[in-house]
Specification:
The chain is of the alpha/beta class. Helix content is 27%, strand content 25%. It has an eight-stranded mixed beta sheet, with helices on both faces. A six-stranded antiparallel beta sheet has the order 1-2-5-4-3-6, with no helix packed on it. Helix 3 packs across helix 4 and helix 9 packs across helix 10. It is globular, with a radius of gyration of 20 Å.
């Protein structure tokens, strides 16, 4: 958990047949999931679309944006990362490569420009990369918000932390703070922080510790780790182990990274979250317990807009229902940032939020 791991994808998908716009896969839990996903193999990637047919043994889905050579002999895997590459390659959006001056060294980032003075900073999750924020970027771009997709310590190609470990948000927030400082120096007046999975824990520490937290006007969280202790207990249970096993696991992590577990629990410092929050979570999340998000939504119901997506596993709310996800995101930001209503495309955006 605290040791960075950027090993290749799991090649656990059996390809039965490939046609021009369809692919037949062996029937399995991963291949039967509703929605849109990425299919990845060595030297290639494709977008898996909706299911169009099933049999007792196979699932046939639409396939598009194939990069590379794909046959029935290909060792491939399915994941939630639909878009790969930079925002130009994957989404056709204008962007700039920028470098943030981080505490430990340079932090590469993508800036997708927009007309607004409120910027979105997108923080990816555990062992991920800035590509993880590509799914949410088009909706931000349509609203005119510049989107800064950031890197932080221990990312591929980025300087590691001094001890080589993840610190679950306790130190990584400083890199997001560096990105916020960069944004505010380059035209941003206010910020929206988007935290994905462990990115949610990082955002939580930013709100508690950053001198720039008062420039944040809203949070968007997707399957966030809002309580690491509860997440460890949940994962022990998912592996069929007694809940008590999570305690020695915490001790082992403490021995390496000296973690302040209380600081990694949102509800231990509610005063840092007195702002609008949009919270997505998949009902079938097998990694970060949906109960944690439900508890936060109940405790802070006056400021949290909670969206639970049926059939969605970890950070797959967008994959399962991208239309719902983007409508709710658009509606939330229009309500939270009234100035957006005066921008171009107001009528179209208002219509989108009403569907």
């Amino acid at each position: 958990m605290i040791v960075p791991d950027h090993s290749p994808w799991a090649t656990d998908v059996e390809i039965v047949g490939v046609a021009e716009s369809r692919i037949e896969l062996e029937r399995a839990e991963a291949t039967e999931q509703p929605g849109v996903y990425g299919l990845t193999w060595e030297g290639g990637h494709a977008i898996l679309g909706p299911i169009v047919a099933t049999s007792d043994e196979t699932v046939t889905r639409r396939i598009s944006a194939v990069r590379g050579y794909l046959t029935t002999d290909t060792d491939a895997g399915i994941d939630g990362q639909v878009y790969v590459g930079d925002p130009g390659q994957s989404l056709g959006l204008p962007y700039r490569e920028v470098v943030v001056d981080g505490e430990l060294g340079p932090l590469p980032a993508w800036l997708v420009p927009g007309r607004e003075r409120t910027w979105a900073i997108v923080v990816h999750g555990h062992n991920g990369s800035r590509q993880d924020g590509l799914e949410v970027t088009p909706a931000l771009h349509r609203l005119g918000l510049p989107a800064l997709l950031v890197s932080y310590r221990n990312d591929p190609g980025v300087d590691p932390s001094p001890d080589g470990y993840h610190h679950l948000g306790l130190t990584e927030w400083r890199d997001v703070d560096a990105a916020a400082r960069w944004a505010l120096r380059h035209g941003a007046r206010r910020l929206v922080l988007v935290g994905i999975s462990m990115g949610g824990a990082i955002v939580g520490r930013f709100m508690a510790d950053s001198p720039r937290a008062d420039r944040v006007t809203a949070l968007v969280l997707d399957a966030p780790v809002v309580d690491w202790s509860e997440t460890l207990e949940f994962n022990s249970a998912e592996m069929g182990l007694p809940e008590i096993v999570s305690l020695p696991l915490r001790w082992a992590i403490d021995a390496r990274a000296d973690v302040d577990w209380n600081a990694l629990d949102y509800e231990s410092h509610p005063e840092d979250f007195e702002l609008p929050i949009l919270l997505f979570h998949g009902a079938d999340d097998g990694l970060v317990p949906v109960q944690s998000s439900q508890e936060v939504a109940r405790a802070w119901r006056r400021r949290v807009t909670y969206v639970e997506v049926p059939d969605a596993d970890h950070v797959q709310a967008w994959n399962v229902d991208s239309s719902l996800y983007e409508r709710r995101l658009t509606r939330f930001l229009l309500a939270t940032l009234p100035g957006l209503r005066s921008g171009p495309g107001r009528a179209a955006m208002a219509e989108d939020t009403g569907r």
